Queue: 4 jobs
Job 1
Amino acid sequence: MALRANPYYKGVCHIALAQEVLLGTDSHTCDVGAFGQFATGIGNTDAGFVLGTGTLILETGIVASLDALVKEFLSASNEEKKAIFSRIAGEADHLKGSTARSKSWYGKIYLTAVKNFMEKGADYAKNEMNWLHSMLNKSIRPAKATEFTLKKNILSTFA
């Protein structure tokens, strides 16, 4: 679906669709939350890329410190996995004090994923990602779609 802004409009213009994330480059971007729309700011270079290609690569949910620990966890022996799990739990707990509430939530997703990986085996992440993908292809509430996308992004580290 191609969207075009009115070429005669010279002010701030946002185009938003239901169940989508609004990307903005100005100070008004954050105002759309009042209308039940999720928005995030992007830089002008990113905006130019979006306008030119119609795509934007977002890695929402990824926490670099936890991602590094997960990669270490995946290559470790069973005994080492337990020690690394403790480090992941500590890092996730550290995120609880973050000023960004979302980081605390991301930490919980990482911790749950590692627990499930240990309990359900190496296929857990692949099976969960397939399920999330199938759910995202259905008509679901925007909040659920956001949650599932975050989980899918985080689980991609395990795959």
Job 2
Amino acid sequence: MSRMPKVSREFSAYFACSAAALGVDYATYWTVARNTAASLEWAAVIGYGVGMVVAYALLIRFVFPQGWLRSRRKLEATLFALTGLLGLLLTYVSVALVVSLLGEHLHTAKIVAAGVSFTGVFVVRKLVVFRSEALNHNAP
């Protein structure tokens, strides 16, 4: 039986960790949206922020423990947070777009935002924040 390529294993593990973080994100989003005066856009931002903390903890433990910044966790966490800002922006814009096109559809807005944010942020984190040590040594 052939072994799954490293990128596929990482993507699968990243997906699983992100799914767990999304559960926390979504629960926070739903709670804020239903129990406060916050708009859906801001409820999504709050949920995303809470989920981002959970995601970082899971990703450095289970997916990218040997990233090029493993000995410099503060820098790694800072870059992770900066890529999270990209995710927040993608989340906010996606929810705002769904709300403007379809109205306040709580679940549709979050599902669209999660897909857009997940894809964009995975690519940036894989290529920048958690790139492999070998890639770092081969850089000019």
Job 3
Amino acid sequence: MEQLMAYNQEGTIKDYCDSFQVLFDQVRNREEISEFYAIYLLICGLEPEIRKIFARWHQYSCTKVKDVISLALKIDTNSLQDSSSPFDPNSSFYNKDLEFNINITLE
């Protein structure tokens, strides 16, 4: 568990995610670790620029380690060229299911 807690990205996102997944599987087989805590550790170990994207736009959108890994790889492939916002229709991360109507009147 200590190795997983101290693990940080030093190379590519793909290498980091692959290694994190292996460590996570090892820890999960020996000890009890929640998926949410593992997600927290995975995101905390990412380089600051990528970590900021998760904190700003995607911190609540992933419930599985594999989802975070998939999203991190997508961010890496995207090379940070768009807004990474799930609300921006021009973003490769756009999620139309997150739209809401801002024309609602309050009573």
Job 4
Amino acid sequence: MTLAPLYFAFGSNLSAPRLRARLPAAKPLGRAALPGYRLTFAKPGRDGSGKGDLRADPRGQVWGRLYRLNPRDLSLLDAVEGPGYQRVALWVHCHGRRQRAWLYRAKAPISQLLPFDWYLHHLRWGAMEARLPARYQRHLAQQPCCIDPDPQRAAREWRLYPASSGPSAGPGFDSAIDPLR
């Protein structure tokens, strides 16, 4: 019997609503850490904004969520992530165990990109859901972002969340939802 693949989500798929919309059978296993890297937004998206990526940093640590996938979900995820990402396997720490998991890294990173506000919201929501360390959540809250010039695309992305956590709530969450406010 083959074990189902593990997937380490540190970008927009950190958000369970976002990943469930893409892969309904994905099972969250818990928060996980990837030592030796830091989060960047250097992957150029098809929309021109910055998407989550990793840069080697011996003092860094990227937090995310570990999911168990159905084997066929990997090919679906490859298609969703697109040709700008390469799937690689790295060691992450989850529940006190070191586990090998798939994740996605930019093939051609570009510095100086900003994520759209809704993209960053996916990360912040996922970080809150997964109860990632408060320090890491504050780091995400301080990340600069920009407004998506395509209002239809932005509306589709914001629709995954309660209205009080969307763009009308300002640059963060509603204080009743966001434990860091």
